[in-house]
Write a structure and sequence with these properties.
Layout: E1 19-22, H1 31-49, H2 51-56, H3 60-73, H4 81-96, H5 103-114, H6 123-131, E2 136-140, H7 146-149, E3 157-160, H8 161-164, H9 171-181, E4 188-192, H10 195-204, E5 208-212, E6 228-230, H11 233-240
Parallel strand pairs: 1-2, 1-4, 2-3, 4-5, 5-6
Helix pairs in contact: 1-3, 1-5, 3-4, 4-5, 6-11
Length: about 240
């Protein structure tokens, strides 16, 4: 399939839409409150089961700093956020002298809380509206599980960077979403919040794109443009009609 960028003008054409692909983190729910809660749960677990690690890395900020440090040491884990988090916990345990084998149960504590997302107010009604009219496919670089989150029944399929092997903005993950929906890329409307990963990535894959700009960010990727910019998902549903 060609990955040439579509020519301007970038005008939404609802009549071409036969499927939806959609990002998860910061599109359906805010990610950082979720991560902060998960890191707090992890810190509490370490205080009970790995006191030396808790002494050195006993705050969510310290745990995130360790995770970010490991990311610089393990670029091979760039598309596997679960492995990156697990190995960062193992690193913390090793550095503190606690048992590195505790990384597995510690990660499960973190990961379970990471799935307890709090949806944006517009997310559920929009998903219900979209999934009643189109096949919907999740496309994410994160490690949320749509089934554990409780939204699986709205999705025909879900792709994440860890399982697929590459992430956005690589056109291959977008093309896989289109194939799962049984349509061509030009018949997919991709919905996401990230200007580079979602908008530029999906444009490069030959899709129409809706940019969910909840914080009124300036667009910095001209001459490329999203086909439509919305402040919330229900506004997009109204425009699709």
């Amino acid at each position: 399939m060609s990955t040439d960028l579509p020519a301007a003008p970038f005008t939404l054409d609802p009549t071409r839409i036969r499927a939806i692909s959609i990002d998860l983190d910061d599109t359906l729910w805010p990610i950082w409150p979720t991560i902060e809660r998960a890191e707090a749960m992890l810190a509490s677990w370490l205080a009970q089961h790995a006191p030396a690690a808790a002494k050195l890395y006993g705050t969510p900020g310290a745990l995130r700093e360790a995770r970010n440090h490991l990311q610089t040491l393990r670029p091979d884990l760039a598309y596997d956020l679960s492995a990156l988090r697990r190995e960062s916990i193992r690193y913390v345990l090793h550095r503190s002298g606690d048992d590195p084998a505790l990384a597995e149960p510690a990660f499960e504590v973190f990961f379970d809380e990471r799935q307890r997302v709090q949806l944006f107010e517009d997310a559920m009604p929009a998903l219900e509206w979209l999934s009643a009219r189109f096949p919907v496919v999740a496309v994410s670089n994160g490690n949320a599980d749509v089934h554990r989150v409780g939204l699986g029944h709205h999705f025909l399929a879900a792709f994440n960077a860890r399982e697929f092997g590459v992430g956005k903005p690589d056109p291959r993950i977008f093309h896989a979403a289109a194939e799962a929906a049984g349509v061509g890329p030009a018949e997919v409307l991709h919905i996401g919040d990230d200007p580079h990963l979602d908008v530029v990535g999906a444009l490069g894959a030959g899709m129409q794109v809706a940019w969910v700009n909840r914080t009124d960010m300036a667009w910095e990727h001209a001459p490329l443009q999203p086909h439509v910019t919305v402040a919330d998902l229900m506004d997009l549903c109204r425009q699709i009609g």
